[in-house]
Amino acid sequence: MGEALTALSAALSRCTPDEFALLLTTIFPIGMGVAAAFRTLTGSIQSHTVDDHTRASGTVEALSNRTEAALSLTNSNVQATFCRVEKQINDMQRAHDTRFADLHKDLAGIVWELSKLRADMARWQALAQLGKSSSPRSLALSASTLAQTLPTSAIPEPPADDAARTWRSAAP
User: Fold this and answer.
1) Distance CA 141, CA 127 (A)
2) pLDDT per position as a tens digit, 120-147
3) Which residue among 17, 81, 85, 143 is least packed, with the fewest CB closer than 10 Å?
4) What is the mean pLDDT of the chain?
5) pTM over 0.70
6) d(Cα 39, Cα 30) in Å, to the nearest integer?
7) Which residue has the higher pLDDT, 13 or 43?
8) 167 exposed, middle or buried (CB, 10 Å; 0-12, 13-18, 19+)?
9) For the chain, domain boundaries
10) How many Å apart are CA 166 and CA 115, to the nearest integer?
């Protein structure tokens, strides 16, 4: 043992202060780790270390409780935000569906008007052709006959609800 101390003191006497500081910063942590490993392996843990573990586990438990409370608060905030966004999406979808239905009713009304106009134009063309080829008396007779023979069922019924045009004034 004396020879090891003599060799150690001879090596330390040749070190510069910078080398000595580096030696301490590397050897000291390694030595503390080795000492802790030996204490754990031999089972000779000191009594104050057990108290430290108890105190540390209480601290960990308190930290765990605070973390759990923070997570539950964050979870409730996220759920509330999600519900609010979901409600906004449903409201927007409902408004979109309403506008689409109103547009569909408007288009149905336009198609009905065009069908009615087409039937009227067919009547007018038939009357014009009859007027060119006949006398006024036969024209009156054929016009009444034509009006009775053209089916009015070919003309579609108008849309039931004319409220479709009100969405234009209510649009944002």
Assistant:
1) 11
2) 999 999 888 887 776 555 555 555 665 5
3) 17
4) 80
5) no
6) 14
7) 13
8) middle
9) 1-45, 46-170
10) 23
